[in-house]
Amino acid sequence: MHQDIARILLHETKIRERVRELANEIARHYPPGEAGLTIIPILSGSIIFLADLIRELPLKMKIALVHVTAYPGRTTSAQAPKTIHEPTGDIRGRHVLLVDDILDSGRTLRAVQEMIRRHNPASLRTAVLLRKPSKAPTDIVADFIGFDIEDLFVVGYGLDFDDHYRNFPHIGVLHPELMP
Ligand code: IMP
Ligand code: MG
Fold first, then answer.
1. Whose CA is nearest to atom 5 of ligand 1?
2. Which of 87, 159, 151, 169 minimizes the C-alpha distance to 124?
3. Could you tell which of 102, 128, 135 is best to mutate to test the pocket of ligand 1, judged by most ligand atoms within 8 Å of the CB?
């Protein structure tokens, strides 16, 4: 796996530090004792970020899952999200924090935010680990952002290419000959 990675963009220690800071930022917006918090990770890319983030969040929370397939197979260019499954848990009247790996073209977040709003949450905020600011549309709001990165296709720390490399601990760029 490591030999497929041409360059590391964000080392795991840097990611860990930033995730801790993000968790502190997020916690300040959800005073303890307030109405229930539901964290909604967008599967599958957010799984590692989610696992690290929620263990730094000392808040009482439920977790509801939303599954979206945005890059089926060996595609690296943005496409409309293919399948969006309804969330698995409680949303109505609860404070919802959406968690995603990356804000790229914004199509995934636009669709999921609309779907969540239809369930009448008490509030809706969004946290993303990465954002490609050169591409992200200005009308899609991410309230908490880990890192702004260049417009590169990245893998690792949950992000995949053809469903591989999610377990690579850093965030890196693949050797160009491996990509279509
Ligand atoms: P968007 O809908 O274009 O904003 O893309 C969001 C989804 O596409 C993310 O949740 C990722 O699963 C996937 N994606 C976008 N950019 C990358 C990337 O650079 N590497 C891996 N997956 C990506
Ligand atoms: Mg993906």
1. 104
2. 87
3. 102
> Whose structure tokens read 């908490």?
144
Instruction: Report the largest interatomic distance among the alpha carbons of the chain, rounded to a whole angstrom.
Output: 52
Question: Is the CB of 146 inside a 6 Å radius of any atom of ligand 1?
Answer: no
At 76-129, the pLDDT tens digits run 666 665 667 888 877 999 999 999 999 999 989 999 999 999 999 999 999 999
Does residue 104 line the site of ligand 1, with CB under 6 A?
yes
Pick the CATH number of 2-178 from 1.10.150.450, 3.60.40.10, 3.40.50.2020, 2.130.10.10: 3.40.50.2020
Tokens of 8: 């590391």
Domain spans of the chain? 2-178
